[in-house]
Amino acid sequence: MMNTLFNPREIVNVAIKVEENGKVLYGILENKTRSENLRKTWAHLKEQEEEHRKTFETMRDNIGDYIVHEFSPGAFDVYLETLASTFIFTEELIREKIKQLFNSEIEAVDFGIQIEKDSILTFSALKEYVIEGKKPVLGKIIDEEKRHLARLISLKEKLLKN
Q1: What residues contact residue 145 under an 8 Å CB cut-off, 6+ apart?
Q2: Using an 8 Å Cβ cutoff, are 60 and 12 in contact?
Q3: How far apart are the first and last CA of the chain?
Q4: Residue 3 lies in a domain
Q5: 26-57 pLDDT, tens per residue?
Q6: What are 64-102's pLDDT values in tens digits?
Q7: Angle CA(86)–CA(82)–CA(106) in degrees, nearest 5?
Q8: In a domain, 74, yes or no
Q9: Range of the domain at 130
Q10: Distance CA 133, CA 139 (A)
Q11: What angle do CA 122, 149, 141 make, to 5 degrees?
Q12: Which of 8, 22, 121, 147 could form a disulfide with 67 if both were Cys (CB 3.0 to 4.6 A apart)?
């Protein structure tokens, strides 16, 4: 039994919440933007969040098939614990932004960039605890998050030029 506060199962649960709230936020941004390019980006990210949520739910529901077991109490490292606590904060920030939204499109894109960075860091750390044969499942999500990050950075550069 895993006894640490932030074990991989907890991170998978937080990941589900982040993806759910990200989907809601991206849907709101999709409906509010006047830019067709941004609308397409927010719509794409919203769809991806839903796919990722489903993948993480499969991981959670079959956790023994995905996550290696902790060999001794406290074996999950401090790095993973720190990232998990940061990721919980990210999930709370997304919920706040759903209520408050943003002052500008650049602010919204910057927030999206930060969410993607936090997700990449956390999922990369979680990958260390995934059974070897299942790592490609999480690797695919990490690669998609990296593409989202690149797309948002490119969008920000275009917005700054206008």
Answers
A1: 116, 119, 120, 123
A2: yes
A3: 55
A4: no
A5: 999 999 998 899 999 999 999 999 999 999 99
A6: 888 776 555 555 566 667 777 777 778 888 888 888 888
A7: 30
A8: yes
A9: 8-161
A10: 11
A11: 50
A12: 8
